[in-house]
Write a structure and sequence with these properties.
By secondary structure, the protein is an alpha/beta fold. Among the domains are: 24-173, PAS domain (Beta-Lactamase); 531-661, Response regulator (Rossmann fold), CATH 3.40.50.2300; 667-798, Response regulator (Rossmann fold, 3-Layer(aba) Sandwich); 844-958, Four Helix Bundle (Hemerythrin (Met), subunit A), CATH 1.20.120. Helices cover 53% and strands 14% of the residues.
Length: 959
């Protein structure tokens, strides 16, 4: 908004009122003067008309020629009077008798009253005034008592009308207006000049003060105001005060400048000290980072070094467990195996923590069946929970999708750690795993997974330090329960990397609830693994309310009606009613503790239920074969160990209702539930004869019918020629590779679209794994394949309860999704080297372990590798020099696949790194790796030449 200056304000304040008053006075005086002239004219005209009326009335009364002449003479004489314009005479009939002068002006507008009155009346026109005067009969003019009003009651003789011109009055009015305007303008100009002079006396000093202030604003504090030149005392006083303020301001500014100089000097000194400290801190930080890097590398290196002899110990332990041992030897061997497994878990935790600190943990995006993942974790931890008779309950809420996209290995690792802790620190009671939907995003969902126990609980102080590395809630826990204190720290790092958080809710002696959230993707299709329309009613006997709720929720999801009973006696009493149910009773599901399962009364009641033709399923919190067989001999339909997986319970119920009805499963959970079959057929496909021999040997040890194929085309023929239940497919093969073969098998028809095909590969990045699954493969395994992994995959995709007899394979941690690349162990370990130093490129113990404990197979595979190594190296070198990237990758992959089953950890490590770099297309690192590969090849060739003829048996005997 534009503001007015002080000058403008003063001009408006002084000049405008003066102008208005002047004009008002001029108009007022002009108007008053005009009305005064008009009144004077009317008075003079009325006087003249009265005199004329006396004479005219007298002459009209005489009548005659002389009278007419005299009347005309009077009419002409009156025109000589000032401002008289014309004269008219009318008789009593309003007829015109006489007129002298020009015609009268027309009357303007409507006139009030009678135009022919009995008393004098003024009529107005635009240019004149007309006075109409009545004439009455009267006495002679000499009659002194004559007055016109006195004769109103006498006969009227006529009317006399005189017109007076107002021109002279108007002229006088204009002259007066002009004079007033001139006088007003004169007074206004004089007033303005006086006001202007006063304004200048105020404005000019103010402008000067403004310029002084602008100079002060520009840091000219030495300027001063000459106050004696101002005529107005107030402005002079203002100037004096400004000078005093400038003096004070300049003094304070000088003080501030001095203080600033001192502060600047102090600040420079402080900055120099801080710069020195920052340099020292930066050096300390670099030293700390370097020390942390060295620590991480040391931990990773030592962990690899330690895992090498540990794998050998575990491998030889597995071989010994297959031999005949006395009880003491078996106990000692079990202790050795358990200690080795515990140490291996700690080492794996250290490796995971090192990867997290280095930011080298990469997440995969694979389909996950949440219920089966939880069931797998509980099945693994079931023995420890059963020893304490803990109830393990899973509640998966309805709004949670069955399948999501995420990293199953990492989620399994987190859940395993939390459930392990819950089992470890809970003496009695229950453990509840809940999976809920926390939030729904555009393409993702936020899952909340909680593990609640009834253990000892935690204090506030313990909770505050719980997720720190190498820390346990209670120091005594390390002695009583073992553990490294790394599990929760690793869980926290993994959860945060998956976009979630982990927390604990606990009160001392009241149990704990650990929960974490993770972001997972939505599966493109939500296929149902089991037919949700089982027919019938399920009678449930469950003492635990939470377990009862979980079983009820699961059964209703399968379309089963459910009736809950307190005990078996109540079911026996209602047996007749149960037989009449529509839909019919499918089974009686009975949950028993270990103590109840050994009670004679319970056995008797079970027999009675069977005798009443009721199908009975028993859930018992034990895996003891004697107890399970004892319950089976009572005639029950099936005995299942708790915690019972969804798959096993469904299979048992499906047997009672008819043949299992399995719908098309999700991409990585395709299962045909072949547990009812005694024999299954598996096709093994690999272009490497020794790798194929190893896989076939492991499969035949399980009693499986094995068919072999050496390339994709042969595999395509074999699946059509034989009825196979599962295919193990190598990925990279000459001609038709595993991915193309899988796609062609899927195109053969519906049966082949549902056939489980498991990829076998020595190396697979996260993107390659997703590519394999997208191409139609059901699952994948990373070479070398252990017996436990092979058995787990066969059970998962066929439902067959196969086993290796007395095999007790140590569980591979969830964090270890692939077999580690092993380095040569130290000479004082159990690894059997052919040289006394630790520089041997061959680890015989590792090779035997990778060959399923078969010495002859291990020697054949190692000798085949060593015999073909010069030719393989020459082919790789030629492809590298000719820059044939695809050929180079193929040859490196083949060599990598062979090293996976031979005890050559150094060569395997270099080949794996080279294949990774080639797939990532990072050329700067390939040259160094090629040099390292050449060195390792030369080491192995020299070793092979020094040990001709090769005999692992003789080397073992020598050691």
């Amino acid at each position: 908004m534009r503001t007015l200056s002080l000058r403008s304000h003063l001009i408006l304040t002084l000049g405008l009122p003066l102008l208005i008053v002047s004009w008002v006075l001029a108009v007022y005086f002009s108007y008053t003067h005009y009305h005064l002239l008009e009144n004077q004219l009317k008075e003079r005209g009325l006087t003249l008309t009265r005199q004329m009326a006396l004479h005219t009335a007298y002459l009209l009364s005489l009548q005659g020629n002389t009278s007419n002449i005299n009347l005309r003479f009077l009419g002409e004489r009156i025109l000589d009077e000032e401002d008289v314009r014309s004269f008219s005479l009318y008789d009593n009939q309003k007829r015109h008798l006489l007129h002298t002068g020009p015609s009268m002006h027309a009357i303007s507008g409507a006139q009030e009253g009678d135009l022919w009155p009995l008393h004098p009346k003024w009529l107005t026109t635009k240019e004149s005034l007309r006075l109409r005067y009545p004439l009455f009969e009267h006495t002679l003019l000499s009659n002194p008592t004559y007055t016109p009003n006195a004769h109103h009651n006498r006969p009227i003789l006529g009317w006399l009308e005189v017109e007076l011109s107002i021109t002279s009055a108007q002229l006088s009015q204009y002259q007066m207006l002009l004079f007033n305007v001139g006088l007003t303008l004169f007074i206004f100009v004089i007033s303005c000049l006086l006001a202007w002079s006063l304004i200048n006396k105020v404005i000019t000093p103010l402008h000067h003060l403004i310029r002084i202030l602008e100079r002060i604003k520009n840091q000219e504090f030495n300027v001063r105001i000459a106050d004696d030149v101002y005529p107005i005392s107030e402005i002079r006083l203002l100037a004096q005060n400004m000078n005093q303020a400038l003096d004070q301001l300049q003094g304070e500014r000088e003080n501030i400048r001095q203080d600033l100089d001192i502060s600047h000097s102090d600040l420079n000194s402080t900055l120099e000290k801080m710069e020195i400290q920052n340099i020292e801190l930066d050096l300390a930080l670099k030293r700390a980072q370097e020390a942390n890097r060295v620590k991480t590398e040391f931990l990773a290196s030592m962990s690899h070094e330690i895992r090498t002899p540990l794998n050998a110990i575990i491998g030889f332990g597995r071989m010994l467990q297959r031999t005949r041992l006395d009880p003491n030897q078996g106990e000692y061997l079990n202790n050795i195996t358990q200690a080795s497994e515990s140490l291996l878990l700690i080492i794996n935790d250290i490796l995971d923590l090192s990867r997290l600190e280095a930011g080298k943990v990469f997440l995969e995006e694979l389909p996950i069946n949440l219920r089966e993942l939880v069931d797998d974790v509980l099945a693994m931890l079931a023995p420890d929970a059963q020893r304490k008779q803990l109830e393990m309950i899973v509640i998966l809420y309805e709004d949670v999708p069955q399948e999501v996209i995420g990293d199953p290995a990492r989620i399994r690792q987190i859940l395993t750690n939390l459930v392990t802790n819950a089992v470890k620190f809970t003496a009695a009671g229950q453990i509840i795993i809940r999976i809920t939907l926390e939030d729904t995003l555009e393409q993702e969902i936020l899952l909340r997974i909680s593990v609640s126990d009834t253990g000892k609980g935690l204090s506030q102080e313990q909770k505050s330090q719980l997720f720190q590395a190498f820390h346990q809630a209670d120091i005594s826990n390390a002695r009583e329960y073992g553990g490294s204190g790394l599990g929760l720290a690793i869980c926290k790092g993994l959860v945060e990397q998956m976009g979630g958080s982990i927390e604990v809710e606990s009160e001392l002696h009241k149990g704990s609830t650990f929960w974490f959230t993770v972001k997972v993707g939505l599966a493109p299709e939500s296929n149902v693994l089991y037919d949700p329309n089982l027919q019938g009613v399920l009678a449930l006997i469950e003492q635990n309310p939470m377990a009862c709720h979980a079983w009820q929720h699961l059964a209703q999801g399968w379309g089963l009606g459910i009736q809950i009973y307190e005990d078996m006696q109540e079911v026996l009493e209602a047996a007749e009613d149960l037989a009449l149910l529509d839909p019919p009773l499918l089974a009686v599901l009975i949950s028993l503790s270990l103590e109840q399962a050994q009670t004679p009364q319970v056995h008797q009641e079970l027999r009675q239920l069977v005798q009443n033709n009721l199908a009975v399923l028993v859930l018992v919190n034990s895996s003891d074969t004697l107890i399970l067989n004892q319950l089976t001999h009572l005639g029950v339909a099936e005995v299942l160990s708790k915690p019972c997986s969804q798959r096993r319970l469904y299979t048992a119920l499906a047997k009672l209702s008819g043949p299992p009805s399995l719908h098309q499963s999700p991409p990585i959970h395709h299962n045909k539930s072949l547990s009812h079959k005694q024999h299954i057929s598996i096709l093994a496909v690999d272009d490497n004869a020794h790798n194929l021999q190893l896989v076939s040997t492991l499969l035949r040890q399980l009693g499986v019918q094995v068919y072999e194929a050496t390339h994709g085309r042969e595999a395509l023929q074999k699946v059509q020629q034989y009825h196979v239940d599962l295919v193990f497919m190598d990925v990279r093969m000459p001609g038709m590779d595993g991915i193309e073969a899988t796609q062609r098998i899927r195109a053969l028809g519906r049966r082949f679209r549902e056939l489980p095909i498991v990829a076998l590969t020595a190396h697979a990045l996260a993107g390659e794994r997703q590519k394999m699954l997208s191409a139609g493969m059901t699952d994948y395994l990373i070479k070398p394949i252990s017996e436990a992994e092979l058995l787990a995959v066969i059970r998962r995709w066929t439902g067959s309860e196969l086993s290796f007899g007395d095999l007790t394979e140590p569980h591979r941690p969830a964090s270890q999704s692939t077999a580690p690349i092993l380095k040569p162990s130290e000479p004082n370990t159990l690894n059997l080297h052919t040289e006394e130093d630790s520089s041997s490129p061959v680890d015989i113990a590792l090779g035997i372990s990778l060959a399923a404990g078969k010495l002859d197979l291990a020697q054949d595979m190692l000798e085949a590798l060593l015999a073909s190594l010069p030719e393989r190296w020459q082919t790789i070198q030629n492809a590298y020099l000719e820059q044939q990237k695809d050929a180079l990758l193929d040859e490196v992959h083949k060599l990598h696949g062979v090293t996976r089953y031979c005890g050559v950890p150094d060569l395997g490590q270099v080949v794996e790194a080279l294949e990774t770099r080639l797939k990532a297309q990072t050329q700067p690192s390939v040259e160094d790796l090629m040099q390292q590969l050449e060195q390792e090849v030369q080491r192995l060739i020299l070793w092979y030449q020094a040990h001709q003829p090769l005999s692992l048996a003789s080397l073992l005997e020598h050691k």
